[in-house]
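re: that complex we talked abt at group meeting.

here r the seqs, copy pasted straight from the sheet so there may be weird spacing, ignore it
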Amino acid sequence: EIVMTQSPATLSVSPGERATLSCRASPSVSNSLAWYQQKPGQAPRLLIYGASTRATGIPARFSGSGSGTEFTLTISSLQSEDFAVYYCQQYNDWPHPTFGGGTKVEIK
Amino acid sequence: QVQLQESGPGLVKPSETLSLTCTVSGGSISPFYWSWIRQSPGKGLECIGYIYYTGSTNYNPSLKSRVSMSVDTSKNQFSLKLSSVTAADTAVYYCARIYETMDVWGQGTTVTVSS
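got the structure back, here u go
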């Protein structure tokens, strides 16, 4: 099983600031990496797939980068609606995709 | 746009079978793959498995002996059965469409295993 490790567990950021979230894969997942946003009581929402492609309707302030084992999700200027939990997911080992443990982005 | 809705009992007794159905609206169940995912505080997000619209399946090895999925294209639905449940199977269960990865999710349904 491919293990996905996210850091930090919690990120405290002020509105308008940049947030940088990390995800590490072991072993490599090439660019088969997705990012999801989850708010309380809601299902995860796909933000990024293919490591860097924004899903339909996702604002440009969300960007993804990386390949292989190291990935980053950047939110360029945090809006109030962006405070949530973010998960990375690998789908290189299909049909056994796995998720990271999540990073909670909270208001500083 | 495509919407998914999970349905089924919210309470299941230990050792019994959990049964859920996902109804797809706003689009066709073909030619996609469809997945079941669950989320619990202890294990986070876990992919249970997936089913193709033709009925072919692939399950998480850790659950394979207890999982069964089926599809009904005439009703635009697919289903999950998980047998011999224990408290460890208590979770929010989601269905999702697979297009490269899980791109559309249902709202989720909470299933509690308790006597």
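couple things i noticed - The longest strand of chain B covers residues 44-52. Chain B is about 0% helix and 55% strand.
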